[in-house]
Write a structure and sequence with these properties.
573 residues; alpha/beta; Rossmann fold; 8-stranded mixed sheet; 17 helices; 35 strands; 20% strand; disordered C terminus
Length: 573
């Protein structure tokens, strides 16, 4: 009740969603999800920011169809995969996170290893991946200058710590992953009467660990403090703190110790290693009792080393300040809400594709596809100099004029993209315009393009597109909304891949081919040049050049004369 009252003081509204602790409980996906959607709808929230893994997955599931009006942000406090050196492919959590990433507008990681993991395994599209230094620590609250020596003396006296005795503090929930038992074993191995260890926290293993401690020599030097609200004072009163965990994100208790200039010992794992590197602490291998004991003894016997470590850590922790992290969060919110056209200068954000454009461009075509390209250009902060259209279209689209083709030659160093969906016309214009300037790619920020994919030029990539490792995309291709191109696929020049198309691994698509909305192609299939695949088809056999195919499974229903462009035939479906 005390902690609930504290939450009510900190927040404008507090809702208790009827989640079950089990990810697989049916009520999480029915009653709880409906309740959460109602809360979000009634309060008209712009952003929902989630943290803990199970609640984060369930919230993203519940709001998966509401993201046009409410953006969803997830801060991962350490992935439950990839942290022990094993491939994430062996963990079900990896596949759950890949699924939930589809419903996530921004994924924030708080340590460098998780950032590398997210990049390497393409967990989410690059423009939606952010890295912040932790979740922020209030350096004003964790300021040793604001804690008096009399307060420190009172705490040590309460614990029965004598003047020359060494007090080691562990602040952590009592669960197996924090490895309290390792610390007890190291304490037993030390066998020193001048060392005390205090444990602050609660959890499922609290009573078990306490019972195990009673069996040890010097058990009176082991202090179980339970839940505490005076953690800053406890840290300041300790000679050192320790965290022997096997898995962490970026542990707050260590940052608090660094801010209070209390030296830290920690296991050499993700997050802890990042904080304690550069002589800002002492690291030991997780589960290595001998190393833990030796590390404790090293600090207990060397006050000068303690002081040096503490000073280094205090300087380093500045970048993890709450003030800094809140600014980064605000910038992320502004970006996903499109409140700022320019990327925040200090955000560690991925570029939106191999061809990140910075100069103005020309879009050939003033119809619907041209306007879609304008939207992608604006999302990338790219200026559109003009549109080109030889028909009787508008004289201006938003702020960009529409000119005739004959006026193009007066524009030096032309940078262009063809905004016409018809493959044949687009192919012809691409060839003509390439003699006048340089074709550029437009890649929507909400697409996911592997850095190991190969892109030609003049490519338009719409929102939600996924291009995986090893894929090769030819010149002047359209990858339309939410299409997915799996590993090692090859798409020839001038193709049009319509919305929702899925190409499984190692599929080959010949130049000039049109694949209709919602079609799927199974692995290893070859689709020839200048083909047309009807909407909703399932391709399970190779398709020869110049063929029309349709159905589930698709069958060849006609041939396209080699003199007839495939894009003209697509209109007959």
């Amino acid at each position: 009740m005390e902690r609930e009252s504290s939450l009510k003081e900190e927040f404008d509204q507090l809702y208790e969603v009827p989640w079950s602790r089990s990810l697989f409980s049916w009520k999480n996906y029915t009653r709880a999800s409906r309740y959460l959607r109602r809360i979000v709808r009634e309060n008209q929230y712009d952003v929902v920011h989630v943290h803990t893994p199970i609640a984060a997955f369930l919230t993203r599931f519940a709001l998966r169809n509401a993201r046009s009006r409410t953006k969803v942000v997830y801060t991962a406090h350490g992935f439950h995969f990839g942290y022990s050196g094993k491939s994430p492919y062996y963990s079900p959590f990896f596949y759950l996170e890949k699924l939930a990433a589809r419903w996530t507008d921004a994924l924030i990681v708080i340590n460098e290893q998780d950032l590398l993991t997210a990049r390497k395994y393409e967990l989410i599209g690059k423009p939606r991946l952010f890295h912040t230094p932790g979740i922020g620590i209030d350096l004003d609250r964790y300021d040793r200058n604001k804690i008096s020596e009399s307060e420190i003396g009172r705490v040590r006296a309460e614990l029965g710590i004598k003047t020359r005795e060494f007090l080691l503090l562990m602040v952590a929930e009592f669960n197996p992953g924090k490895r309290h038992r390792d610390l007890l074993k190291a304490f037993e191995r030390l066998g020193r009467a001048d060392i005390h260890i205090a444990f602050a926290g609660e959890g499922l293993e609290f009573e078990q660990i306490q019972e195990a401690a009673r069996e040890l020599k010097f058990s009176s030097h082991l202090h179980f403090l339970g839940f505490r609200q005076d953690v800053p004072l406890l840290i300041a009163a300790s000679d050192a703190t320790i965290l022997p965990s096997e898995r962490e994100g970026l542990p707050r208790s260590i940052m608090e110790s660094m801010a209070l200039e209390t030296p830290v010992l920690g296991s050499r794992i993700r997050g802890i290693s990042e904080l304690l590197s550069d002589d800002c602490g002492i690291l030991f291998e997780p589960g290595n009792i001998e190393q833990i004991a030796t590390s404790i003894e090293a600090l207990a016997s060397d006050p000068m080393r303690c002081q040096k470590i503490a000073k280094n850590a205090r300087v380093k922790v500045e970048k993890y300040s709450l003030e800094n992290v809140l600014k980064l969060h605000e910038e992320i919110y502004n970006q996903i809400l499109n409140r700022s056209a320019e990327p925040a200068p200090n955000l560690q954000r991925m570029k939106s594709g191999p061809e990140h454009i910075s100069k103005s461009i020309v879009i050939y075509g003033a119809g619907g596809h041209g306007r879609v390209l304008l939207d992608i250009a604006e999302a990338n902060g790219v200026a559109v100099d003009c549109f080109v259209d030889d028909g009787m279209g508008p004289s201006k689209i938003e702020e960009s004029p529409v000119i005739c083709r004959s006026d193009l030659r007066a524009r030096p160093r032309l940078r262009f993209i063809v905004g016409i969906g018809d493959n044949a016309i687009r192919s012809q214009l691409f060839a003509e315009l390439s003699g006048l300037g340089e074709a550029v790619n437009l890649v929507h920020p909400f697409s996911s393009i592997s850095r190991k994919a190969k892109l030609g030029v003049g490519i338009a990539i719409m929102p939600g597109v996924v291009v995986n490792i090893g894929a090769s995309i030819g010149d002047n291709v359209i990858l339309n909304t939410s299409s997915s191109i799996d590993h090692d696929c090859v798409i020839g020049a001038h193709c049009h891949i319509c919305p929702g198309v899925h190409l499984a691994g190692t599929v080959s698509v010949g130049a000039g081919t049109f694949i209709g909305t919602g079609s799927s192609v199974v692995p290893g299939i070859r689709i020839g040049k200048n083909c047309v695949i009807g909407a909703g088809s399932l391709i399970i056999r190779d398709i020869p050049d110049n063929s029309k195919a349709f159905g589930v499974p698709a069958r060849i229903i006609g041939r396209i004369p080699e003199t007839t462009p495939a894009s003209h035939v697509q209109k007959t479906f």
